């Protein structure tokens, strides 16, 4: 099942306010932030703030693109 | 030789002196322990979970951590160690390791045969008391870490861990309390606080914005320990003689 993304601004005091809401079947699936310049080599990558699906832990890795995140959801995410 | 023992095992003698009132005979016995020196590199394992050991590692220089891992590879650091610490004292009585011990920097270790430590503890009651007290303080630190990882917000959590580390460094006579780099990577801080590396980076920048630390090239420099203690609500009482 493909995800759809809606851009949002996070109300966060750090620099990573640019973000997207990820939806799966009209339900809010998770929130990803776009990492800012304070993160050095990881700047520009997507970081999973939270996923809601069945108590799944967010991955510790970051994703170069939202498509990469979708592939992780498809292939590697372990729903409890 | 005794002279070598006083020199090499000096950090252990000084640590035991913080834990109990050693006399000259006690110090002589510690200095006379048999040992083999080993230089280890950052990330080298000193003890692996599941293995049995006949020797205890006394950390002479450098830093190390104890950690456990999940099957999927997630690592939780459960304690940090520094000069004078016996990294696997529990293996004197419980030979099978229930966790890993790993060097977090290049380090020097003195391997002491476990039976020699056991004999020393029974022959010299004051040293036995010091070692017993050390394990009790270890337990106190673990309780504080459970509270830290389980209940503090991320800024206080990271600040508290850094406060504990700097307080123990001071007690071990390793650094002056003002403005020094911590021998910890952001990855290690993340694994010790149960946070992601991204969130640790944000938290360190928040602590920097409050004037407690400076982050340079991924290294953390403490510039205002008092401010950081306030942010962490740090009370060193749980460290007992380790503070």
Structure description:
The complex is a heterodimer of chains A (80) and B (243). Chain A is mainly β and 80 residues long. In chain A, 12% of the residues lie in helices and 34% in strands. Chain A is built from 1 helix and 4 strands. Chain A has a 4-stranded antiparallel sheet, with no helix packed on it. The two termini of chain A are 18 Å apart. The mean pLDDT of chain A is 89. Chain B is of the alpha+beta class. Chain B contains 9 helices and 10 strands. In chain B, helix 2 crosses helix 5 (125-151). The two termini of chain B are 31 Å apart. In chain B, 37% of the residues are buried. Chain A binds chain B through residues 13-16, 35, 38-40, 42, 47, 58, 60, 62, and chain B through 74, 196-198, 201-202, 205-206, 218.
Topology:
The complex is a heterodimer of chains A (80) and B (243).
Chain A: E1 4-9, E2 18-24, E3 27-34, E4 46-51, H1 66-75
Antiparallel strand pairs in A: 1-2, 2-3, 3-4
Chain B: H1 2-8, H2 10-19, H3 24-31, E1 36-40, E2 45-47, E3 55-61, E4 64-69, E5 75-81, E6 100-103, E7 107-113, H4 114-123, H5 125-151, H6 154-171, E8 180-181, H7 186-193, H8 197-209, E9 213-216, E10 219-222, H9 225-232
Antiparallel strand pairs in B: 1-7, 2-6, 3-7, 4-5, 4-6, 8-10, 9-10
Helix pairs in contact in B: 1-3, 2-5, 4-5, 5-6, 6-7, 6-8, 6-9, 7-8
